[in-house]
Each structure stands twice: as structure tokens, then as C-alpha cells.
Amino acid sequence: MSAIPQDLYAAAGPMAPQGKSMRDHLGMLRRRRGLIALVFATLFAVAVVVAVVLPPVYRSTATILIKEQEIPQEFVRSTVTSFADERIQVISQQVMTRATLLDLVDRYGLYGKARQRETSEEILDRMRRDIKLTPISAEVTDRRTGSPVKSTIAFSLSYDSESAAAAQKIANELTTLYLNENVKNRQQKAAETTSFLDEELARVSEHISEVEQKLSVFKARNQGRLPELNLANQVGSERANSDIQRLEREIVFLNERIMSLQTQLADTKPNQPLAGASGTLLDPDDRLKSLQLQLTTLVGTFSEDHPDVKRLRREIAVLQAETGQDGDATDREARRLELQAQLSLLRQKYADEHPDVAKAKRALAALEALPPGDAKRARKPDNPVYINLKSQIESTIAQVQSLRTERDEMRAKLALFDMRVSQTPEVEREYLELVRDMESSRARFRELRDKQMQAQVAEQLERGRKAERFTLIEPPIFPEKPYRPNRMLIVMLGLVLAVVGGVGVALLREALDQTVHGPRDVMRVLQAPVLAVLPVVASPLLARRRSRVRKIMALAVLVAIGVVVAGLHYFYMPIDVAWYSILRRVAG
Question: Do 436 and 227 contact (CB within 8 A), yes or no?
């Protein structure tokens, strides 16, 4: 028992550890080194093949700057108010149309092999995936609020292709399309804004003409009843009322004068001087005229059956028989004029049903009902006083008629003025509606005219390319190195995967293997302690096998190193350049 090592006793004791130690893991790696090497070589070879076989993809990129408007917006404001991000997306949708992309594919012969087995939609999808648009944002200060905001100041446009020349050409074409489409869109929007304002201005101008025509017709239809003439109508009404009162007073005065003159005319003989002193006897002619005048007065007061009326008619018949005439026609005319003047004066004071008015009407009707006298015996008046009074009466009657005519005209004017004043509120409502429509239309016309002028200036700004625009600051260049795949990264990942895969396969094979490889496996299988471990007796065959395995491993390591170096040289950086770079870093 003394010959047994102490570690074996520890391993065989009841307190022996259950897990595997580092020595066990190293032993497992030694036993499974062939399997690990095989799996490692296979996976690494696959990674290298993938890195080599994957076709190179070149990317040509252009950078486009969104340049601000050259003229300050305080002086000229652009009519294109959309944000840069929005316009970029709109332009992208316009550029990425089916017709445009298929034209580029046909012109430059893109996706030659893929076009033989894929449809046009699949080709278009591939091309849209190969086109990359990346906005470049920066924090700027908002001019209105003064707070920092994130704004797009530029964007990059790139295209991926298996051909470096094709990548550059397509990137150039796309850049040109974006630049031209931006200019076209801005000029089109500016022109559409100007055109819209022109149409709106023409429509408002036409509406103003219609309102002016309506207002002109309204003024012609309501002439004199417009609100601005209301004060003039009120003044005219007051003036007409005062003129009517003045004419009434003048007519009353002249009627009184006519009555006075007719009284004097009745007392004056037309063919002889004025009557003498009281008590002078009248001749039969004067007596006949006097009785006729009395008869006209009594007829106006009493009926035909009254005794006085019958008596006067008998006396008049006797005097007419004596004188052989019916009376003086001149006196009868004078009496008629007097009764007419009296009737006119009474009508101004009373209604037609008043007794005095009815009495005057009956007297005038009785006078006009008298039979006309003998025209041959009527003599022409030769009394100057009589002739003067009669001419005064006639002229005064003419004045009264003229004043009455003027009074009627003034009454018509007063009625017209009163009608205009009463109708003014209703006319004013419609008139104010037309005026308000006219004022609002003119204000809208002035506003649109100002906007039209601003839009025209903004359109000239876009045509002169002085507004916000896309500027190419970095054109697409010919790509000298592939953008993808990253062959070195694939090789490195393949190396790591090969190592992990080899070790993992070894661990899995070890877990499934039930072979006894040491004292622990003996204890696990027999459930008994190990008393002694006999060393392995080396044989020439085993030594040769181990030597051969070492040589294979060394050769595999050399091959792997060679493959890695070749990959670095051809796919990442030439060896001489890498060596000089390392020397510079070490020296620095």
C-alpha cells in the first residue's frame, strides 16, 4: 500500500471531487485533437471559401448640401414652404418610379444575369434596395423661437453594384435626377402659386365688377332714397313744408284781396261814373242788376218756394219787360268770379259738407243757371275805375292759380321727400349689404394683388436659383475598394466559429463516449476505489503514430497561417503595406 501515490488515495477516498479538473479537460483535448482539427479545418475552410466566393459590391456615394436661400427671407419670401425632409421624400418617390429605374437598367445593362431569371418587379425591388439615401442632420437654431431644433442640412445618395464603374455611373445619374427634380418641383410650385393667385385675382375682379353693376342698378332704381341723401331729403322736406305754408298764406292774402276788389267792382258801374251820394235813385237797369244780385244771394240761402225768392223773380220779370234785356253780362261775370273766390276761400277753411260751403255752391249754381243776356245790347265797359278793378281781379286770380299750382307741386315734392325718408331704412339695409360686399371684395383684391406680386418675385427667385436649393458638394467617385463583403471579418468570424465548433464537437463526443480513460472513469463505472495506476508502456507503433499526428497538426497550422496571411494580403491590405504600417506605429 505504501507504493500507491497519495493523489490516488485522495481520488479514491470518500471525499474525492465529483467535477472534472483542468487535467481532465486537457486530457480530453489531447484525446480528441484529431476530431477538433478536422472540424476546425472544415469550418475555417468553409468561411474562407465564403469570403472568397462572395462577389464584391462597390458603393459610390454623393453628398448633396441643402443650401439656404441667398436673399434674406425678410426681403423675399419663397412660396415653397415644405420642409427639406418632406421634399426629399417627395423627390425620392418621383425618381424611384418604374419608368425611370427601368430606363437606367436598360441603358447601363444592370443585373444582366438576374434579368434572365427574374421578373421586372424583382429587378426593380433589387435596384431600390441598392439605392441608399441617408439624411444628414444637425442641431440648428430656430429663427422664430430661438430654440435648438434638429434639421436636415444635407443627405447622401449612394448606389451599390458589383461593378465599380456601374456604381459610379448610376450614382451620377441619380444625383442629377435629384438635383433636376428639385429645381423642377420648386419652379413648378412657384408657377402654380402664381397661376392660382392670378386666377383668384381674376375671379375677385369679376366679382367686383358684378357688385359694381348691381350697385349702379340699385342706385338708379333707388335714386334719391340712398342713405347718404337721407339728410338732404329731410332738409328738402322741411323746406317744402315751409314753402307750402308760405304759399298758403299768400293764397289766403290774395283771396282776401280778390274779395275786396270784387266788392269794389260790384259797387262800380261799368258804363258811368261812380254812384253819387246816398239816396240817389237807380234807373231800371241798375234796379234790374241789383235785383238779380239779390236773387243770387237769396237762392244761395233759401229755396225756390220762399216768398222773397218768388217776389224777386216777379220784380225781375217786370223790369226785364220794361228794359227789354236780361241784365248786364259784365256784372254777372263779376258776381260769378266773386262767388268762385269766396267758395275757394271757404274750402280752405272747411270741408265740402260745411253749411257755408254748401251755400256758396248753391249761389254759384244759381248764377250760372241764369239765362244769358242779349249780346247785342251788352255794352263794353268804359269806366276806367271799373276796368282797373277788373284787371286787378283777373291778375290776382292768375296769381292765385299760379300759387296754387306751385303749392300743388310743393305738396308733391313734400310727399316725395317724405316717401324717400320713410323708405330710406329699407333701402339702407340692402345698400349696406352691397357696400360691405364691395369693400370686402376690394380688400380681398388688394390682398391678392400684394400676394400676386410677392409670388411673381418668388417665382423669379426660383428661376434665378437664388432660393433654397440642392448643391452637390461631393460628387460620386470611382470606388477603389469593395464596400462589401468584409472578407477579413468573415475569415475572423470563421476562425472563431471553427475554434468554437471544434471544441464543441469534442465536448459533445466526449459526453456521448462511455469509454474508460482514467481513474475517475473506473470509479464511476465500478463504484469502487482505485488502489493503483499502472503507467502506459510506450511502444514503437504508438510513438510513430504520435509523431505523424504532430506533423499533420504542424502542417495544418502552417496551412492555416498561410491562408490567413494570403487572405490579409489579397482582401484587406498587402503584406508590405501592413508591415510598413506596423513599423511606423512601433517607431511612433
Answer: no
Cα–Cα distance for residue pair 184/176, rounded to 1 Å = 12
Tell which wins on pLDDT, 511 or 115: 115
Residue (of 78, 82, 61) closest to 136 by Cα position: 61
Which pLDDT band, with edges at 50, 70 and 90, does 2 fall under?
very low
Element (H, E) at 112: none
Instruction: Yes or no: say if 126 and 114 are a contact pair by the CB < 8 Å rule.
Output: yes
Q: What is the pLDDT of residues 399-420, one digit of tens each?
A: 888 888 988 898 888 888 888 8
Band of pLDDT at residue 458, cut at 50, 70 and 90? confident
Task: Give the contacts of 171 (CB within 8 A, at least 6 positions apart).
Answer: 60, 61, 62, 157, 158, 159, 476
Report the b/e string of 495-509 with b at 16+ CB within 10 A: bebbeebbbebbeee
Residue 469's nearest CA partner among 191, 63, 189, 186 is 186
pLDDT at 376 over 50: no
* Residue 509: C-alpha distances to residues 18, 29, 44, 166, 374 (Å): 20, 11, 20, 51, 174
Q: How far apart are CA 16 and CA 28, in angstroms?
A: 20
Check residue 158 and give its pLDDT: 92
The CA angle 238-240-241, to the nearest 5 degrees, is 65
39-45 long-range contacts, Cβ below 8 Å, gap at least 24? 39/498, 39/501, 39/502, 39/505, 39/506, 40/498, 40/499, 40/501, 40/502, 41/498, 41/556, 41/560, 42/498, 43/494, 43/497, 43/498, 43/501, 43/502, 44/494, 44/495, 44/498, 44/560, 44/563
List b or e across 328-354, with b for residues whose CB sees 16 or more CB atoms inside 10 angstroms.
bbbbbebbbbbbbbbbbbbeeeeeeee
| Pairing mode of beta strands 469-474, 58-67 | antiparallel
First CA to last CA distance, the chain: 66
Contacts of 306 (CB under 8 A, 6+ apart): 298
Type of residue found at 100: T
Task: Give the pTM.
Answer: 0.53
